[in-house]
Amino acid sequence: MLRRFIALGVAALAAASGDTAHAAQPVSAGYNLQAAATQVASDIAWFHSSILIPIITAVTLLVLALLAYCAIRFRASANPVPSKTTHNVVIEVVWTLAPIIILIVIAIPSFKLLYEQQTIPKADLTVKAIGYQWYWGYAYPDHGNFAFDSYVVQDKDRKDPVNQPRLLAVDNEMVVPVGKVVRLQVTAQDVLHAFFVPSFGVQVTAVPGRLNEAWFKVERPGVYYGQCNELCGKDHSSMPIAVRALPEAEFAAWVDGAKKKFAASQSLDVANAQQAGR
């Protein structure tokens, strides 16, 4: 319960710092993590804000205080004859044990979080993401195995700057249902890519010839943005990820329309390829 309240507080702080709507994208002058849209992302935010930041702050202040003490206490004017001390058992024990204790404090929740991320629960649907130079392709094997490509919306084609953020909006979004476990399978066709959506707490490397997996369950409707964060070539910035989370009934309606839309486009591609081969 305490963790949930802390996570909600982190989300509220992120919203106050400029994360509006559902924190689907980066914001100007933002200084915190994007507000979480999944339980895993909430746990990451809790680990960051409740474990890492306090430890980093405490260690930084301690080191600063020790430096200030040494600079004042052992300055040349106050110590014209320097000390010849070379060993101090207490200090050596402290500086050996303290980092061990700090690492244990970090490791216990860290391992729990890694287990949560890597253990995929029973999935309600599977979506396959394929990285190309330089766009994403998505396939839905559980819903007729239709597939489509997702390209960045170029500046000249952006009709609505608010709902089509620059370098993040795409022509065909990945669509998933709210409240359902999505098993994400990630691979690449050419070079290394990476599927990264901050508000989901998901980052998976896309490796040619290898199928990596992750999972997420979106807790509320919205459009959530991410990017390829593997340096994959000159148009690396043209590989955004846009995931639209819909209520289950709306998702089912989208699937029905997508089957017809993308089946028709795939048939047209085949016909064009056959025509070009003649």
Question: Briefly, what is this?
Answer:
By secondary structure, this protein is of the alpha+beta class. Helices cover 40% and strands 21% of the residues. The chain is built from four helices and ten strands.
Separate helix tally: 4
Largest sheet: 5 strands, mixed
What is the approximate shape?
elongated
Overall SS class: alpha+beta
Order of helices and strands: HHHEEEEEEEEEEH
Describe this structure in words.
With 278 residues, the protein is α+β, with helices and mostly antiparallel strands. The chain has 4 helices and 10 strands, in the order αααββββββββββα. A 5-stranded mixed beta sheet has the order 3-2-1-5-8. A 5-stranded mixed beta sheet has the order 4-10-9-6-7. Helix 1 (2-16) crosses helix 2 (39-73). The protein is elongated. The N and C termini lie far apart (67 Å). Residues 1-23 and 267-278 have low confidence and may be disordered.
Any descriptors?
278 residues, five-stranded mixed beta sheet, 4 helices, 21% strand, disordered C terminus
How is this fold's topology laid out?
Elements: H1 2-16, H2 39-73, H3 89-118, E1 125-132, E2 135-140, E3 146-150, E4 174-177, E5 182-188, E6 193-197, E7 202-206, E8 212-216, E9 222-228, E10 240-246, H4 248-277
Parallel strand pairs: 1-5, 4-10
Antiparallel strand pairs: 1-2, 2-3, 5-8, 6-7, 6-9, 9-10
